[in-house]
Fold this protein.
Amino acid sequence: MPSPEEASTSSPPPAEPPSFKSLGLIDPLLEALNQMNFKTPTEIQAEVLPHALQGRDIIGVASTGSGKTAAFALPILQKLWEEPKGLFACVLAPTRELAVQIAQQFESLGSAMGVRCATIIGGVDMMAQKVALAKKPHIVVATPGRLNDHLEETKGFSLRSLKFLVLDEADRLLDMDFGPIIDKILKVIPKERTTYLFSATMTTKVAKLQRASLSNPVRIEVNSKYSTVSTLLQYYLLIPLPQKDVHLIYLANTLAQNSIIIFTRTVHDAQRLSIMLRTLGFPAVPLHGQLGQSARLGALTKFKSGGRKVLVATDVASRGLDIPSVDVVINYDIPTHSKDYIHRVGRTARAGRSGKSITLVTQYDVELVLRIEEVIGKKMELWPVDKEEVALLRERVDEAGRYATNELKEQGIKGGHGKKRKRGGDEGGKGDMDRDDDVVEAGMPKLKKNGKGRR
C-alpha cells in the first residue's frame, strides 16, 4: 500500500475542461451562451477559439453537428464588440437553409450586443435584400450566387471594408460548382482580412481554395476520420426493387411514433413519396430544391416543431442543418458517395442522443452498401420484417402510388429531374445559381451547358 503522500502524487489530477470564460470570451457573449444553454465548449470550439481570438486565419476540419458555427461566430462577434461597424463579416454557405440557420445563430449569440444580420439567398425578392444591405448590417450570411448578383447589380453595395470572410462547408460549396463565383467574390473583397475556412473533408479543391484565400492559417482537425457516432444503430433491409415503396410504408407504420427523415436521390421521388405517405395517413412534408423558399422554410419549421412527423428530403437536408430531435433516418435510395451516407445518418443521434438509420437495399445496391460499411468500419444489422404485414399493405400502397403519380403529372413534375425552372423565376435571375444540387440526382455527374458550368 502506498503512503497517502505517495498516493496523492502518483498521477496528476485530470485537466479541467476549458470553459467559455477561460477561453477569453467577453461578458455579452457569455451571457448569450448561457441563455442558449451552451455550458461547455465542444472540441472544435475549444481548439479554434484561442487561435481565432489572437486574429489568426483558421482551417477547421470538422464533421457536421460539431458546433463549428459558434466556433467561427464567437471570435467575429468579439472583434465586432471592439470595433463596431457595418458590413463587418461575410459568411458563405452552400444552401439556403444553412445560410438561414447560421444567421439565426449569429443573432442569438449577438443578442446582448444588438447585432444586425442580413441573409442573402436565392428564392427571395432581391429588392427587399437591397434595402437590407443599404442599412449596412454587421454580418452578411449568403449563398454565393445571390451575393455575386448583389455585388454586380446593387448600387452602393460593396464589401471593400470587410474584416472577416467565412467559407462554411467549403467542400460542398466546391462540389456544387461555386468555384468560379467564389473566385469573383475573392477579387472584390480586401486582401487584408481574417479568413475562416470550415470543411468536413479536405479535398484537392478545398486545398486549392485554402492557398488562394488564407494567410498563414492554423489548421485544426477534429474527428478527421469519417465515421458515424457510437449511439447510432444502423440497419439495412434487403428487398427486390419493385417492393421499395411497400417496405417504406411498412417501416413508417412500424415507427409511427418517431420523427423520421426519409432521404431520396431525386426531387421526383421526394415529392411522390410525400404525396403517397399523406394519402395513407402519415403527416409528411417534402423538402427539395424545386420548392419555393417559403415552402422550404415552412416544411423545416413544421418538422422541427413536431407538427409533421415525417420529412421526405433530397440531400438538401443532409448537411449542416441542426434539427434537434430526429429519431430515425431512412435511406430510400442509397447515396452514391459514402460521405453522403455519413452526413445523412448524422441527422439523428446528435449531441450524445441515440438514433436509428435504416437503409433500403435492392439487388443493385449491394456493392454500395459494402463500400459504406468499409468506410464506417461497421456492419449494418438486418432489420426484422413481418412478411405477412407487408403483403397486407401491398394493395393500398400500390393504389396510393398510382394516385401520387397522377398528382405529379398534374403538377408537371416528370421523371427524376422535374421540369426546368425559368431563370427569371427566382426573383432576380442569376440568384438561381445558389439552388441546391438535387435538381440533378445527388452524386451524379453534372452536365455543363454552353461551357459555363451552369446547371
Summary: The chain has two domains: 27-221, 232-411.
